[in-house]
């Protein structure tokens, strides 16, 4: 099996090393794992692509490349320039922090998997929820490292993929903020929305008198209700959410047609 991996935390991120371990276990001794990851951190860029300027790429070693671009750029570079043939799987992550709930809308990790799906390749985003249960661990990615390969293999062997669909499925996996031993079985859930204000802005004045804005995050350990990814993670479960790049609100098409009828 040939696997392309990327992330949004950057080529030197510890979560990428965890993903490499997962990918090599899935690919097997005769498989190939190719890494194309951002040269610098690209957290929060979503499904951004560098459409208006070129992307410089550098070969760092065998099957290992860094690109001065987003995770989606890295996937495009891997599929259309670097790899000799299309991979069988795209894995994006393991992100440092959860991409459950509303975070998925901003996530470069999810954006990398989304681009893989749009290019017709099976794709999975993987993220590690951080919290009080991970602060004392030697390896904060322990849950993902120990359970990641089994989850990916289960998705590959048993999950629907809808190959040939207009917008193919991809999967968003979040590992809970607990140790590997405390991690509970996967739960399938919808993308939640934390009942908080979400991201905000905090302004600061620099020593030179210039004004800068920092994006401020919100409380993460907030449940979103039954059946959601966040609630599953906070209960110690791995969450798996099927996703598509299709942003259409299908449940409102008829109502909108009626609003414009006549």
Automatic annotation (TrEMBL):
Among the GO molecular function terms of this UniProt record, one is: nucleotide binding
Q: Which UniProt keywords apply?
A: Cytoplasm, Hydrolase, Metal-binding, Nucleotide-binding
- Cofactors (names): a divalent metal cation
Q: Tell me yes or no: is Nucleotide-binding among this UniProt entry's keywords.
A: yes
Question: Where the protein is mainly located, per its record?
Answer: cytoplasm
The EC designation for this entry is: 3.1.3.5
Cofactor note text = Binds 1 divalent metal cation per subunit.
The UniProt function text for this chain reads: Nucleotidase that shows phosphatase activity on nucleoside 5'-monophosphates.
Quote the protein name from its UniProt record.
5'-nucleotidase SurE
Q: Which organism is it from?
A: Celeribacter indicus
Lineage, top ranks: Bacteria, Pseudomonadati, Pseudomonadota, Alphaproteobacteria, Rhodobacterales
């Amino acid at each position: 099996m040939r696997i392309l991996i990327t992330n949004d935390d950057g080529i030197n991120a510890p979560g990428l090393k965890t993903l490499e371990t997962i990918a090599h276990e899935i690919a097997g001794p005769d498989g190939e794992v190719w890494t194309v990851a951002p040269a610098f951190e690209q957290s929060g860029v979503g499904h951004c692509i560098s459409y208006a300027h070129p992307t410089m790429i550098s070969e760092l070693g065998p099957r290992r490349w860094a690109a001065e671009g987003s995770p989606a750029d890295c996937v495009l570079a891997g599929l259309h320039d670097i790899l000799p043939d299309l991979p069988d799987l795209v894995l994006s992550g393991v992100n440092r922090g959860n991409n459950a709930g509303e975070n998925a809308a901003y996530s470069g990790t999810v954006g990398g998997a989304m681009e893989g799906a749009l290019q017709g390749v099976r794709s999975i985003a993987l993220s590690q929820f951080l919290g009080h249960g991970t602060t004392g661990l030697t390896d904060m990615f322990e849950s993902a490292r120990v359970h990641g390969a089994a989850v990916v293999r289960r998705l590959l062997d048993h999950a629907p993929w809808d190959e040939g669909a207009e917008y193919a499925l991809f999967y968003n996996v979040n590992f809970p903020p607990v140790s590997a031993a405390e991690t509970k079985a996967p739960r399938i859930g919808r993308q939640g929305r934390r009942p908080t204000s979400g991201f905000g802005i905090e302004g600061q004045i620099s020593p030179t008198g210039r004004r800068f804005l920092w994006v401020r995050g919100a409380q993460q350990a907030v449940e979103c209700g039954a059946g959601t990814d966040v609630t599953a993670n906070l209960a110690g479960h791995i969450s798996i959410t099927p996703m598509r790049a299709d942003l259409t609100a299908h449940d409102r098409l008829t109502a909108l047609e009626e609003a414009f009828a006549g």
